[in-house]
Amino acid sequence: MNIVFSYRIIHAVFALVTLFFITKYLSPADQGWYYTFLSLSALIYLFDFGLSSALIHISAIKFTKYKWKKNGLIDGEDANSFQDFINLSFFKYLRLSLYYFLILFPFGIYYFSESNDFQYYFWIIPWIIHCLAASLNLLCLPFLSIVEGSGNIKEIYTLRIFHISLGTLLCCLLIYFNYPLIAPSMVLLSLFLVTFLWLVFYRKNNLPKFSFTNNKYEWEKDTKIFKNKIGITFLGAYLVAQIYTPILFYFENSTVAGQFGLSLAIANMLGLISNSWITVNIPSMTKAITEKEYAFFSHLFKKSFFQSSIFIIFATFITIILYILFDGYNIINRVVEYYNFIGILVIIIMNHFISAIVIYLRCFKEEPLVVIHFICSVLTLLLGTYFLINYSIAGLIMIILLIQIFLILPISIVKLRKFIKNI
Predict the structure, then answer these.
(1) Pairs from 1-5 (Cβ < 8 Å, separation ≥ 24)
(2) Where are the beta strands (DSSP E) in 18-93?
(3) Longest dimension (CA), the chain
């Protein structure tokens, strides 16, 4: 069993533990606040705008001529240039972290002040903690992405196992002791703590330095264009996965937002596990393309895609059966109604297929789907928000599925086939 899949399984188990604590110790309204906090913190990936994913791919290409030694020391000709690459990445994220806090903190103050039940919750201090934790979380991404891209997948996902274990423990304790608005910050804060200790004790040579030689032009040339194209794809993923929980919270109420947030969390858990088969092979596939080993790349991708697709379809089927079996229990009252729940699961399956095509093309440092993803992201946001306000969750799910099935997926398949013919 590979380490990424092990991490996803452990993550899923801890997600189920957290689910138990949420449904047992939080009210439906508390649940809505909890998932709204999480959805807003996910905005860090819009500020990231694909940079972390770009760093994985670029690191996989750059590190082919280097090796890691003790304490993160880099061995190879002109090794300082790779450390400069790490330094530049960190300072980019330091700026993004500051932007995130300065924008999201005041926005959250206004947003929650306008909610229907803000007067019943002590939310200002938890919101400050959450924004700080999310900002610190951003600072971890360059180190994790670059080391993962270099091929040290086992090291990074072992670190993530420690992170998710600590974060879940702290989160569940705070839920148990009735601090539902501080609990969401714990997973974010634990990543920063674990990453900081890892750098200090195991990779002190990779800690950021204030003197480096790479010039701005090289960074812009290698990273910026690729990153921006990936960012458009991330924008579409965020609009499907996260943004509608805060919209439901604002236009309807915290209870409905909590039902949607929990349903989406369950579906996303299945998507994360299924993506493990592909995610673990991204550095290997990118390296194969760099070395022009196209047959090996094709074999690796097809095998990963087949395994992951079988899993997500089977897991979706089992989840629907469990929904039916638990009908009448309290947990079912905490998620959306049956047909809406199935719709959310289908959305995640469609996302899986689209994401696989994107990863295939990205291994070639190509993003031919960037325009269609941007157009569909804007279309999904506008129509999704309209139908959500007027027809609630059912209208939103219908719009997302229509755009996925009749626009994004078929166009992605056509683009993929055209690209493969030109290889």
Answers:
(1) 2/276, 2/280, 3/153, 3/154, 3/157, 3/158, 3/280, 4/153, 4/157, 4/276, 4/279, 4/280, 5/273, 5/276, 5/277, 5/280
(2) 67-68, 74-75
(3) 65
Distance CA 258, CA 250 (A): 12
The Cα–Cα gap between 127 and 130 comes to 5
Closest among 227, 224, 241 to 354, alpha carbons compared: 241
Residue type at 150 in one-letter notation: S
Cα–Cα distances (Å) from 121 to 127, 234, 255, in that order, read: 11, 32, 14
Q: Is the pTM of this model over 0.70?
A: yes
75 φ, ψ (degrees, to nearest 5): -110, 130
In tens, the pLDDT along 268-323 reads 889 988 988 888 788 789 889 988 899 999 999 999 999 999 999 999 999 999 99
Burial-class residue 289 by CB neighbours within 10 Å (0-12, 13-18, 19+): buried
d(CA 312, CA 318): 10
